[in-house]
Design goal:
heterodimer, A: MetI-like fold, B: mainly alpha, MetI-like fold
Chain lengths: 309, 322
């Protein structure tokens, strides 16, 4: 070892270290700045997203509530005239039509959808895998196509005519895949141990499915069904081609009926300001329907979680 | 969410044992019969529209090339509607994608934990609002605003008239307005899915990157978004599918005319809304032409849904590996 080496040498790395510290501090400052800017942009994005949506709800309440009165709910519509431009009547025909359509559609879609969903969950046959692809593809199909199908099949081929039946058929085709998919998921969610417990007790497989699996999956299935109904209630496109927008109250499946969304569509471009104003009320009722159904579905879903735990 | 159940963590596949199908009971046959019925309905759905559209495919091959739609004798050209569908849904997706991605990030990483569930519920409720309500809002509120403010401003730019067309048509109805309404409409759908995808990124990855000194944005950009990438594409395609298939909202705000010049500020139409608007007065071969448009729409929708399903499956496998 060189003795001279023991003497304190001038620290040549000092400047280098200072340089490194400076650059790293700068880099860090830049990274923090970029991060702040981007997070601010995200905050801007959520504001941008909220504005039209909040505006929509505000507008709906502000313009919808004044229109709602007993006439609105209980009277059939009438055409305004020059002498009485505000005589729009009510929309009882559309309320009854919407209820009738969704009830008939549910009657058609729920049994088929639920049973098909159970089959999807409990079978690994070829049919099941085909059906799974089919139902997932159908779930994404544009709703106007269900209208075309109902027109082509019910009206052109079966000659049944424009009716609640044709409209609810279109809605049923729309609801089927939604119900089947959600049923499949909730049946699959039933713990395997429950099935095995049933088997261990010597129960027959179909007994296990009906008495153990189904009751456990029930709240999930109900949630799916409610969501499917709430989607069907709001749809305009599938029904507009086939229900002919009847002006009278009717529960009969073979009568032409109207529906709330269809009435909005027809009246939004009306030359009568009173009819245009009325559409806000219809929209509010429609949104209220859908929200109540969705919230009910959520409550059912949370019940399911409690049972699961 | 029922919208895209595949995105959620899936329960373990049901093992060999399957309670309903292992025995040949009446219940087993009932299930098979119902499933066959469902499959039959779906096949009938495609076939019946396809068969009714055959005359159009056979006689006039103009559906994909012509811009002229001339009932009652034709030609029936769908080009204006096809381009209208593309224009409106792509612009809508661009707006909703950018805003929606920012919103999802903000919901997952900026909003206090307590508010998060409330915001998520609110957004899922908005995704359930019927599209006709968005259409009504667009037509009665947004259209006058576009007519008086936005359109003239856009038109004041150089070359705007040549590219976008002249503003101030028919109550403010235009393809651009349709695109904006669509973007507001698909935003909740996009956010509902992308929020879920982003929230599903494993916490370990996030903490690992933060512990290495990454800033929040670096963590999001380099860890969260790449991990969630494929699921986000899935959300994008699903929103695109919803935008292309949207009927009544577009029918209300786009103006419902076959737009020959593809100008954004002109009224226009999309495939789905054209079917809805024309069907009421259609006779004979025009019905067949509209059915042919329906087949076109079906092809677009089915391919979008196949692509998004494939992407979502890849995302699920990717997350399973992590």
């Amino acid at each position: 070892m060189n003795v001279a080496g023991l003497a304190p040498t001038p620290d040549t790395g000092h400047e280098l270290r200072a340089e490194i510290r400076r650059t790293s501090q700068n880099a860090r400052a830049r990274r923090v700045l970029v991060s702040r800017v981007m997070m601010t942009l995200c905050a801007v994005a959520i504001t941008l997203a909220a504005v039209p949506l909040v505006m929509l709800i505000f507008e709906l309440l502000q313009k919808g509530i004044p229109v709602l009165d007993t006439t609105f709910f209980l009277k059939e519509p009438q055409s305004p005239t020059l002498l009485s431009p505000n005589a729009t009547g009510g929309v009882s025909n559309a309320i009854i039509g919407t209820l009738a359509l969704s009830i008939y559609a549910s009657i058609m879609a729920i049994p088929v959808g639920v049973l098909a969903g159970i089959y999807l969950a409990e079978s690994d046959s070829k049919l099941a895998s085909v059906l799974r692809i089919v139902s997932q593809t159908m779930a994404g199909a544009p709703s106007i196509l269900m209208g075309l199908f109902a027109f082509s099949f019910i009206i052109q081929d079966l000659h049944i005519g424009f009716s609640a039946l044709a409209g609810s058929f279109a809605l049923a085709v729309l609801m089927l895949p939604v119900i089947a998919i959600s049923t499949e998921i909730s049946v699959r969610n039933v713990p395997q141990t429950l099935r095995e417990a049933g088997l261990a007790l010597g129960a027959k497989p179909h007994k296990i499915s009906l008495k153990v699996v189904l009751p456990t999956a029930l709240s999930g299935i109900v949630t799916g069904v409610i969501l499917a109904i709430s989607r069907a209630i709001g749809e305009t496109a599938p029904v507009m081609l086939v229900i002919a927008g009847g002006y009278t109250d009717s529960w009969k499946p073979l009568d032409p009926v109207s529906a709330l969304p269809l009435t909005i569509f027809m009246n939004a471009k009306s030359e009568w300001p009173s009819l245009r104003a009325q559409t806000w009320g219809i929209a509010l009722v429609l949104v209220a329907f859908v929200f109540v159904l969705s919230l009910t579905a959520r409550i059912w879903a949370s019940r399911k979680q409690k049972v699961g735990n | 969410m029922v919208l895209l159940p595949d995105l959620l963590p899936q329960p373990e596949e049901v093992a060999e044992f399957s309670s309903a199908t292992s025995s040949r009971s009446w219940y087993h046959y009932l299930l098979i019969a119902v499933s066959l019925l469902f499959t039959l309905v779906s096949v009938g759905f495609v076939l019946s529209i396809l068969l009714k559209s055959l005359p159009t495919w056979a006689h006039t091959g103009t559906l994909l090339t012509s811009r002229v739609w001339q009932p009652p004798n034709g030609p029936y050209g769908g080009l204006a509607m096809i381009v209208g569908t593309l224009e409106t849904s792509i612009i809508a997706l661009a707006i909703a994608g950018v805003v929606g991605l920012g919103t999802s990030i903000a919901i997952v990483f900026l909003i206090p934990r307590r508010l998060r569930n409330i915001v998520a519920t609110f957004i899922e409720l908005l995704a359930a609002v019927p599209s006709i309500v968005y259409g009504l809002w667009g037509f009665l509120v947004l259209a006058p605003f576009m007519l008086n403010t936005v359109d003239p401003w856009l038109n004041s730019w150089p070359f705007a008239k040549e590219v976008l067309g002249t503003s101030g048509q028919e109550f403010g109805s235009s393809l651009l307005l349709a695109a904006i309404v669509l973007s507001v409409m698909i935003l909740p759908t996009f956010v509902a899915i992308s929020r879920e995808v982003i929230a599903a990124v494993p916490q370990d990855l996030i903490e690992a990157s933060l512990s290495l000194g990454a800033t929040r944005w670096q963590m999001i950009k380099d860890v969260v978004l790449p991990t969630a990438r494929i699921g986000l594409f899935g959300a994008t395609f699903l929103s695109l599918a919803r935008a292309t298939g949207e009927t009544v909202a577009v029918a209300l705000v786009a103006g419902g005319v076959a737009n020959m010049q593809f100008h954004l500020l002109y009224p226009g139409t999309s495939i789905a809304s054209w079917i809805a608007l024309e069907f009421g007065e259609a006779q004979g071969n025009e019905i067949s032409a509209l059915m042919a448009l329906g087949i076109l729409l079906m092809a677009i929708s089915f391919s979008l849904s196949l692509v998004s399903r494939w992407l979502v499956n890849r995302q699920r496998k990717l997350l399973a590996k992590v």
